[in-house]
Amino acid sequence: MKCSRCGRPAFAKFRRHNAAFCEECFDLFFERQVEGAIRRKRMFTRDERVLLGVSGGKDSMALWHYLHRAGYRVFGVHVFLGIGEYSEKSREVVTDFARSHNLPLTVLNIQDFIGCSLPEATRRLRERASCSLCGSIKRHILNRFAFEEGFSVYATGHNLDDEAATLLGNVLHWHIDYLAHQDPHLPSPHPKMTRKVKPFYTLTEEEILRYVELHRIPFVPEQCPLSQRAKSLDYKEALALLEERSPGTKHMFFLGFLEKGKAYFARSLTPPELRECQRCGMPTTQEVCSFCRTVERLKAKEVKNHAHSRRE
Ligand code: SF4
Ligand SMILES: [Zn+2]
Ligand SMILES: [Zn+2]
After folding, report:
1. In the prediction, which pLDDT does 95 show?
2. Helix, strand, or coil here: 86?
3. Ligand whose nearest atom lies closest to the CA of 137
4. What is d(CA 312, CA 303) in angstroms, rounded to the nearest whole number?
5. Which of 36, 140, 181, 279 is positioned for an S-S bond with 291, CB 3.0–4.6 A?
6. Distance 3 CA to ligand 2 centre (A)
7. Residue 277: phi, psi to the nearest 5?
8. Pocket perturbation via mutation, ligand 1, pick of 131, 136, 220, 232 by most ligand atoms within 8 A of CB
9. Which residue CA neighbors atom 5 of ligand 1 most closely?
10. Which residues have their alpha-adjacent CB atom under 5 A from ion ligand 3?
11. Which superfamily, per CATH, for 23-221+229-273?
12. Which of 137, 224, 232 to mutate to test the pocket of ligand 1 (most atoms within 8 A of CB)?
C-alpha cells in the first residue's frame, strides 16, 4: 500500500477519503483538518489562552498534544471524580503528560465542590443516573473555573463520531432546541459563560487513534466503570454500519447539517433568559441553579444518613 500523496509506503488507509497516507502525510492531513476547523469556525487564535478539558481519554490527550505542538497557548484542566482506580489512572496520565511536556495543568477535585466523590453522590441521590449527574456537575465546575480564571474559550476533544451520534439522537427525538444549538463553536450566552469549541469535529475516532499511535501519546483506554450503555453507543453503531457501506456518511450527515440544516431550527429558537443563581452567582434559567440544588440535596441526604446510622 502506497501513500496517495507522495508514493512512499503508507501506514494507514482511510476509506472515507479514498486515500492511504505515510506517517508524514498523515500528520499533514491531520493538521489541515484541525487548522481548517479552527479557522472556519473562528475558534481561537495563537494569542488566546485556551482552556482544554482533559479527561485522560484518547481524544482530549490527542488535542492537548496537537495544540501544544502547533504553538497554541493551551491550559489543561482535569476534574478528579473519585471513581476508584479509573480516576487514579486518569489523573496519573494527565499529570505525567503535563510534567513531561512542561504544560500547565489544574486538577480540580469534585470533593472540594460537592463534599464527596461521584460514586458517593450517585449512591446518595439514587434516583439519578451517574452520567447525567456527572455531566451537570462537571459543566458547572469547569464553567466556574474558566470564568474565575479569565478564560474566554473552552475546548473539548469531541470528534466527528461523537457529533454525528448526538445529531442522530437529536433528530430521532426531534429535540429542536438541541438541533438549533448543536455546533462545534457555541458562543457565550452570558458574560460568565465561556464559549465552547470542538476543534476535532471533522476527524473520526479512527483518525484520532492513528494520531495517538503515531505520536505514542499516553491515554486511558478503559471505559469509565460508571458509564451506562448510553444510547449514543447505539447511534454510533448504526452510523458505523452506514459508514461501512458508504464511506463518508458521517461526514456528510454532520457537516451537511451545519451547512444546510441547522439554520431551519435556529430560526424558531427563542434564547433562554439567563439570570444569576442566588447561591453561587453563575448563570441559570431558575432562581437556584441545578448544581446548587444538587449540592443541597446531597447535604440533606448526608444529614439524614448520619442520623440514621447513629440510631442503629
Ligand atoms: S462515563 Fe459518565 S460517569 Fe463516567 S466520567 Fe463520563 S459522564 Fe462521568
Ligand atoms: Zn506520503
Ligand atoms: Zn448555583
Report:
1. 98
2. helix
3. 1
4. 15
5. 140
6. 5
7. -60, 135
8. 131
9. 224
10. 277, 279-280, 289, 292
11. HUPs (3.40.50.620)
12. 224
Atom of ligand 1 nearest to the CA of 135: 7
Are the CB atoms for 178 and 262 separated by under 8 Å? no
HSE (CB half, 13 Å, CA atoms) of 214? 21
The owner of cell 471513581 is: 83
In short, whether 28's Cβ falls inside 6 Å of ligand 1 is no
Which residue, chain included where needed, has cell 448504526? 238
Q: How far apart are CA 165 and CA 237, in angstroms?
A: 9
- For residue 212, the number of C-alpha atoms closer than 13 Å in the C-beta half-sphere is 21
Dihedral sign of CA atoms 190, 191, 192, 197 in order: positive
21: left (phi over 0), alpha (psi -120 to 50) or beta: beta
- The pLDDT of 152-169, averaged and rounded, is 97
Residue pLDDT, tens place only, 278-294? 999 999 999 999 999 99
Cell numbers 495544540: residue: 67
Residue 192 has pLDDT above 80, yes or no: yes
- Domain extent listing, the chain: 23-221+229-273
What's the average model confidence in pLDDT over 210-218?
97
Ligand 1 atom closest to the Cα of residue 81 is: 5
